[in-house]
Structures are given as C-alpha cells and as structure tokens.
User: What shape does this take?
Amino acid sequence: MSTKKVPLTREHIEEIIKTYPTPFYLYDEKGIRERARAFKSAFDWVPGGFKNYYAVKALPNPYILKILKEEGMGADCSSLPELILSDRAGITGEEIMFTSNDTPLEEFRKAKELGAIINLDDITHLPFLETIGLPDLLSFRYNPGPLKEGNDIIGKPEEAKYGLTREQLSEGFRQARDRGVKRFGLHTMVASNELNVNYFIETVELLLATAADLHRELGIDFDFINFGGGIGIPYRPEQKEVDFGALSRGMKELYGKYVTAGGLKDPRIFFESGRAVTGPFGYLITRVIHKKDTYKTYWGTDSCMADLMRPGMYGAYHHVTAFGKEDRAPAGTCDITGSLCENCDKFAVDRPMPELEIGDILAIHDSGAHGRAMGFNYNAKLRAGEILLREDGSAVQIRRRETMEDYFATLDMSGLDSF
Ligand SMILES: *Cc1c(COP(=O)(O)O)cnc(C)c1O
Assistant: This one.
C-alpha cells in the first residue's frame, strides 16, 4: 500500500496525457505554494525579516520562480544563466543571492549589474571582485572545518571546497570594511538533504556565535545571516519531514542568546532551500511499456535516468505509485527500469509493487528538485518536458520536451559531407 499520495486520479492523469504524452515532469502548484507559506510563516517572529532564496539549480524554470516570488521568495544563483533566468522571472536586485564558487569575472559583473547580493566563496575573490568595483553589500561563506561534523551527503566541512576558514573570515570582513563596503552578510552551508533538525540548530548556533564574535572584533553589524540550503525531504515513506516550527523555535532561543545579548543590530535571516520547497511536489510521470522476466522481473518504462538520474547515480530511493493501484497490496518485488545502455538505469530495485500491467502510468515521487535539472543527453536521449498542475486542476506546459532538432543544434552538419 502506497503511503505517499499523488495529487490527482488516474482519469485525470490520462486526460493530461492525451495532450502531453509521457514521459513528463508534473509539478503541483498547490503543494508548492502551501510549502512556501508554511516555511515563511514559521519564521515570522524574526525582527529584521525572513527570506528564503530558492536555489534555482533545484528547478530552474521561470514559471516556478514566478510562483515562488509571489510567495515572498528570492533566488539563489550560482551561474550566469541562473542570474538571467531569475531576473526574467521578475526576481531582481537584492532578491537575488549570488552564492557561487570558482566564479568567472563575467559572472560577478552580471551579478553586480543586476544589483544581486554577492556572497564570496574565498578571500582571494575580494581583490578579484575589486577589479570591477566592490559593491555596497558583501557577504562571505564560512567553512567551519573541524568545528562541524558534516553530514553523509555533503561530507566533512574540512574536505569541502567551499568557503573561508575562521581566520580568513576576520581578515575578509576587515579588508572589505577598510575598502568601503558598508553592509555585511554571513553565510554557511554544511548540509545536504539533512532531515535531523538538531543538525541545523547546531549550525545556527555556530553561525550566530561567529557573527557575535566578528561584531566584537571588528565593530561591524550584519545586514543578514544566511543559513544556506540542505534541508532534506523524506524520500522514503517511513521518514519524517523537517519540522520548520522546531527549527524556528530552536533559532529563536539562540537569537536571544547571541544576537540580542551580543548587541548586534537585528540582522535579516535567510535560507537558500531548494529541495524542501519543490522536491516533494514534483513527479516524473512515465508509462510502463514492457514486462521482462529473466532472473528477476523488470518493468520497462518510457523514461530513463537521463530524465531522473538520482536513483541510478546515488542509489537514491524514489517512491513509485501506479495510478489507480494506490490502495492495492504489493504482489511481489520487481525492478523498474529505463532504456539507457547502463545497468544502473533503474528507478527502483527489488521494490514491492502491486501487480503491474503494460500501459500502467507510474508517478516517481519527490522529483521536484534536482530532477529534470540534472537531466542529460547520454545515449542521445531527449529530456522530458515539464507540466504545471494548476490549483484549478488544469495542466499547462512550462517546458516542452526536447526534440531531435535540439539534440542536433550544437552540431554544424553542413560541413559534414565535404569533411
Ligand atoms: C545546492 C545549494 C543550495 C540548495 O540546496 P538544497 O539541498 O536544494 O536545499 C543552496 N545553496 C547553495 C550554495 C547550494 O549549492
């Protein structure tokens, strides 16, 4: 029995498929909006104000960004096209956070031109950025190194390429202050897909204590403190989602202890969450086209890991629901496969499923972040399009599926015959 729900019936999805053939990504607008509101309202106590800068890389679609902007979010970008996408979606100026690393100068130039907040990943980026002029507001990314344990997915902070050491942080803010920067931000991100709320609360303590120390040391105040992304989602039915309320209560206590008691002017509080905002509200919709019985039973779909690489790449669990069979008990286990010439191209391995049939429509859950965005063209596979399920139940295409022309677009075939 499936404990994860799909937001529409088999009849409804069949109706959508008449216009948009499988495979495609389906995003549930209602779910996304409700999640965004819950996130925001959990932090409405923050005196300086609260904002989540949605990590554009998780679902880089301007229609989704426009919805998130309406719900009060900004955009967290780390490349030139992401900056342009955000600006085009109406997320402008300081509603854009540029948290990049190993950054080319043209990208800093574009971020400056857009008035985005620049968050530097290294102390050497300060003189690098100064060649085009330092902005009024500048942030640094802190890597706490051995002070923080790290989580399974992002690894140990000491081994992560991101951020400045504690000593570099003091030096960076000092230099920035002396070179005329007026407003300061402090950032860290030491988790990925983390479900333990205490891990985040520990990070909050570490960063707020660091801000208070820097304030004492350099006499600077912080315009904002940015806790990055990494809030996990329960991919497995038995897992529990991160409780925004518990995170907020934990933060509130520490805020009094470090910010208020430390004499800091009320900073704004930011996150850069991507996965937790849209992840649970996206589904890869695919049809079963083959059944194969060899040493195991394989159900072959019309999609593959070029559309969704997480299961094949990381062995990540994604729940699968067969439309119309939501309440049926498992009839045994099977593998659910794609068509790549790679044996890891399986959406599920040894998965208990109800009795399937050719023609069944499957929803691969929790694909609304780091799903379509991580797609690729290996085996000359054409990536799926994206459909938005509106709150009134209608479906609109927000990205068409790739065509053969798209695949050939980077090849100049005209020179081939005379080559
Ligand atoms: C990937 C990333 C995020 C978003 O991570 P989620 O796991 O989607 O919340 C935020 N900030 C930075 C700098 C990132 O690299």
Notes: The first strand starts at residue 24 and ends at 28. DSSP finds twelve helices and 17 strands in the chain.
